[in-house]
Design a protein that fits this description.
The protein is of the alpha/beta class. It has one domain: 3-Layer(aba) Sandwich (Rossmann fold), CATH 3.40.50.720. About 45% of the residues lie in helices and about 15% in strands. The chain has nine helices and seven strands, in the order βαβαβαβααβααβααβ. A seven-stranded parallel sheet has the order 3-2-1-4-5-6-7, sandwiched between helices. The longest helix is centred in the middle third of the chain and has 21 residues. It is globular, with a radius of gyration of 17 Å. The relative contact order is 0.14.
Length: about 240
């Protein structure tokens, strides 16, 4: 019987690469998305011919929507072995003094609260399957970024959540880890010019920009590393050394 992985934010560049990595390894993949069904359809076409998958439309910031999604998942697939909390949002760069309460609510509801809620709802699944949680943080959650204070704080909160939950679930043989990507070549960074990207690459110890596959490989490793828990794997080309 195939293990089941739930990947949130599967319509994004990183989320889709993670989902594809698990599918290629033989997992049954549950794909959460909110609005971008076209991206999910493109992702499905890249899966192996015998792939098992389930598309789940859900607004993760809505408790009722999250519960309904899991009800469908349990009826159609069964219990989850791996949860990858990848769904997230970022704001345009601006000073903290220019942010609003609505900005704060959007970032923390999406990046933190929804991940905590979904993990809590799946605790029984994870314990039953001696499963794994992998949270997608950011290098800015490790080091902080000027003009991205709310985003950095939300990703730092995910790291604290990861470490605390790892201790709590360790007696149940459930691992909880995080990946902290650096600058990755995705649509989220499409606003950056070629000059900006080149400058960032030059400042990165490995002298290049990361790919979604780099992050997917890191996530897959942590999901299957049975003696690794409470860790933050920086997938950033060495930026946070």
């Amino acid at each position: 019987m195939k293990q089941i992985v739930l990947v949130t934010g599967a319509s994004g560049g990183i989320g889709s690469a993670i989902a594809r990595r698990f599918s290629e390894a033989g997992y049954a993949v549950a794909l959460q998305y909110n609005t971008n069904r076209e991206a999910i359809d493109r992702l499905i076409r890249s899966f192996p011919a015998d792939a098992a998958y389930l598309c789940l439309q859900c607004d993760l910031t809505c408790p009722e929507s999250a519960q309904q999604m899991l009800d469908v998942l349990h009826r159609r697939f069964g219990t989850v072995s791996v949860l990858v909390n990848c769904a997230g949002k970022a704001l345009a760069q601006k000073l903290l003094t220019d942010t609003t309460e609505d900005d704060y609510d959007l970032i923390f509801d999406t990046n933190v609260r929804s991940a905590v809620r979904l993990t809590r709802l799946l605790i029984d699944d994870l314990r039953a399957n001696h499963g794994a949680v992998v949270n997608i943080s950011s290098m800015w959650g490790v080091s902080g970024a000027s003009c991205e204070v709310l985003y950095s704080a939300s990703k730092a909160a995910l790291i604290g959540f990861t470490k605390a939950l790892a201790k709590e679930l360790a007696p149940s043989d459930v691992t909880v880890n995080a990946v902290a990507p650096g600058l990755i070549d995705t649509a989220m960074n499409a606003h950056l010019s070629e000059e900006d990207l080149a400058a960032f690459a030059a400042e990165t110890p490995l002298r290049k920009i990361g790919t979604p596959q780099d992050v997917a490989d890191a996530v897959f490793y942590l999901a299957n590393a049975r003696f690794v828990t409470g860790q933050v794997l920086c997938c950033d080309g060495g930026c946070t050394i």
